[in-house]
Amino acid sequence: MASYCSLLLVALLSLAAAALGQASLKCQVQPKTLAAMRNCYRPLLVFSPSATDSRLKRQGQILDQDADDMMDRFVMFTPILPSAKDYDPPLDTPFVIFGAQQTQAVRAQFAVPQDTFLVLLLGEDGNEALRSAKPVNSERLNAIIDTMPSRKREMLRPHAN
């Protein structure tokens, strides 16, 4: 199912590149760093003390319920885990798991201890737009994203998502 999600994301990015000039083909489908996400995606970083944490699972379920909204808004679900060994990824939501070095760098950048659960939404510019100690519902994510200047421009274009 992850490959289906990747194919869907590639198709969406191709359409976006052609029609919207946003999330272009220069964007990696599975970015390996936050820098690679800049000007391509809106990372939703979910720091979790473990791959089996119930809050992490809940955030994934929330995103899966509204996967179309997340794809329309170019949200990239990015769990930040001590180990991805027992992680059960979402079914429909675009996601990426960073390697150990990038995971440590992201934790240090946002000063999030390994035993902490935290949700951070970043804009395409890399700036922090939301910080929450509990899972965030789709309505709140959509409302925040829809106030971002880049999203406002997307919504003004013909055939925008």
Overview of this protein structure:
The protein has about 160 residues and is α+β, with helices and mostly antiparallel strands. It has a single domain (about 1-155), classed as Glutaredoxin (3-Layer(aba) Sandwich), CATH 3.40.30. It has helices at about 1-20, 35, 55-65, 65-70, 100-110, 140-145, 150-155, and strands spanning about 40-45, 75-80, 120, 130. It has a 4-stranded mixed sheet, sandwiched between helices. Strand 3 (about 120) and strand 4 (about 130) form a beta hairpin. It is globular and about 40 Å long. Residues about 5-20 have low confidence and may be disordered.
Question: How do the helices and strands line up, and which of them pair or pack?
Answer:
Blueprint: H1 2-19, H2 34-37, E1 42-47, H3 54-65, H4 67-72, E2 75-80, H5 100-110, E3 118-122, E4 128-132, H6 138-146, H7 149-156
Parallel strand pairs: 1-2
Antiparallel strand pairs: 1-3, 3-4
**What is the C-level CATH assignment?**
Alpha Beta
Reading the helices and strands in chain order gives: HHEHHEHEEHH
| CATH level 3 topology | Glutaredoxin
**Poorly predicted segments:** 5-22
Number of extended strands: 4
For the largest beta-sheet, the strand count, sense and barrel status come to: 4 strands, mixed
Strand proportion, as a percent range, falls in: 5-15%
Query: How many helices in DSSP terms?
Result: 7
Radius of gyration: 15 Å
Quick synopsis:
The chain has 161 residues and is an alpha+beta fold. It is built from 7 helices and 4 strands; from the N terminus they run ααβααβαββαα.
